[in-house]
Amino acid sequence: MADLLNIGLSGISASKTQLSVTGHNITNVNTPGYSRQSATQATRVPQFSGAGYVGSGTTLTDIRRSYSEFLTTQLRSTTALNSDVMAYKSQIDQLDSLLAGSTTGITPSLQKFFSALQTAAEDPSNIPARQLVLSEAEGLARRFNTVYDRLNEQNNFTNKQMTAVGDQINRLAGSIASLNNAIAVAAANGQQPNDLLDARDEAVRQLSSYIGVTVVPQDDGSQNIFIGSGQPLVVGANANRLEVVPGQGDPNRFEVQFVSGGSRQGITTQISGGELGGLIRYREEVLDSTMNSLGRLALAVSDQVNSQLGQGLDLKGQIGAALFGDFNDPSLAKLRVQSFAGNTGNARPLLNITDTSALTTSDYRLEFDGTNYTARRLSDNQLMTVTENPPGTLSFTDGSGRDQGIQLEVGTPAPAAGDVFLLQPTRRGAASISTVLDQPDQLAFAAPVRSEANGQNRGTGSISQPDLQSLLNLGSLTGALPVTLTYDAASGDFTLPPGATLTRIDPNDGTPATPPTFQSGQTNTYELTLADGSTLRLTLSGRPENGDTFNVAFNDKGVSDNRNALKLADLQNKATIGIDPNSPGTTGVTFSDGYGDLVERVGTLTAQARQDSDATSAILKQATDNRDSLSAVSLDEEAANLIKFEQYYSASAQVIQVARSLFDTLISSFR
């Protein structure tokens, strides 16, 4: 009877455990990361009898979880990838809407400004039309400022989000380290602590949503977690940490440091995957270059407009004043240079813009070893050639000899050996643009030079209005004018007063034409260099007679002259951005095309991000479904198990009841 009783008791015990495991599964159906558990049974060692071996019941051998390391690893990696893409997409969607919007982008304001210039050029003496140009210029400057503010807000949000994500990473790293310790202790008896393993897997999965990780299992059941290029975030029961701090070169651009004990290592460029990787990737691929592109456009607009105004006369006959502020103001030039946090010197260099058409959208890193300067363009990591001429003034050219359009004034005190500087020529260009002209009559719409043929000429020769190519200053120009061109039939060319030169050129490329003398009956293009060094371009045509004269003089009657206004309006369609000084005319884009390229690039990246989001979301769902198909709890299945193990329990109890009845019958037979 005792054997039968023990068999029943073993069944009772096994069925009770099976019911407990089933109940545990049901109550954890909504627990994140929980893996369904099941109890494994085996027969006890049978007893030998004369007729053979008789079974002695059942025993529980293991309580295991439905788990696949491959599916868990797949889920972890797809979670990191999807979180990266979603963080990237959420930011670039906002940027795309900002830049391409009909009310938020730069294009509408740019078009309104040039439209106002076209209107004013039609009637250059019209004061209301001139006032509209000033208003639209102010609106354009404010639009640049507003877009920059939105981009700067995104940068600040990125910094804050990186800090918050870093805190979450440190919290989860500490939890994983604690779970590693608990698992190692619990696994010392040879059995796996299923719930602790599930909790750790879920913590690692959550960690992968913040940063890409590599998991390396250890013999004691713990897991080591590595990030970046192999930095150990968790080793056994010990956790290192990440710190998000202001950048060494640019404090407005936060960096990630890996902290282990007393050592620190910058790992920003090595991080990939997870929300942190997506934010860093967006900043490096999109945000930084967008701020630089927008700044370059603002600098080009202000430079080209101011330069053209400086080559004209206003309604008072004065040389044109600047419409936009000086972007090389020392207070602005100083902001373009960031000293690294570890610098030992006190140098405060100034970075001036020398040629806006040659500017790139890159930042630069400048190092000083105590004797020589080394510069590198960060967009493509290309080493620059640094030229110091005059002493204390640095210019930069790339490997093809292309000037970068910037010049650094080292100033005093000089940098110390080992000092490093971050040069950002265009980063704040859109923030600093502003209008400084408030008087409409000071807009220089008239050309400063006019020409006319002498009314007493006998021939049919004619002269065009001169096109000013370069100007030193108004005082020197007025001193060099007037200039009289006299046709000499004997030489077939024109004579000039001392100090002035006239060169017949090819109108296509500006090179000296062949033959160099005047060709009667044709349109001849000339470059006139005045005594002060100013240059004009004009045409002479027809058939002049010997002694005929043509006069080039200062334009003191330019109230209704719109030649410079037309040049200002033509800037809209002139290639002024991204020009290679070594091959002018073959490169460069207009203001509108420059901004359009930026919008197109962001739009393309946005479309790609949306496609990536759809793809990674589908992959993540598939990985989640694959893991759940094995590990998730099915309430229907567990309900069936409850009934099965309840019947199992009742049947085992019935075995005990039979054993008791048999025992009672045996005892009764001896009474």
Automatic annotation (TrEMBL):
Domain Flagellar hook-associated protein 1 D2-like: from-to ranges: 341-425
One GO cellular component term noted in the UniProt record for this chain: extracellular region
Origin: domain of life: Bacteria
Protein name: Flagellar hook-associated protein 1
A molecular-function term among this protein's GO annotations: structural molecule activity
Organism, as annotated: Zestomonas carbonaria
InterPro entries: Flag_bb_rod_N, Flg_bb/hook_C_dom, FlgK, FlgK_D2-like, FlgK_helical
Gene Ontology biological process terms in this record: bacterial-type flagellum assembly
Family listed: Belongs to the flagella basal body rod proteins family.
Domain Flagellar basal body rod protein N-terminal: 5-34
Keywords associated with the record: Bacterial flagellum, Secreted
Pfam families per the UniProt record, alphabetical: Flg_bb_rod (PF00460), Flg_bbr_C (PF06429), flgK_1st_1 (PF21158), FlgK_D1 (PF22638)
Secreted recorded as keyword: yes
Domain Flagellar basal-body/hook protein C-terminal: 631-668
Ranges for domain Flagellar hook-associated protein FlgK helical: 93-324
Location of this chain's protein in the cell: Bacterial flagellum; Secreted
Main location: other
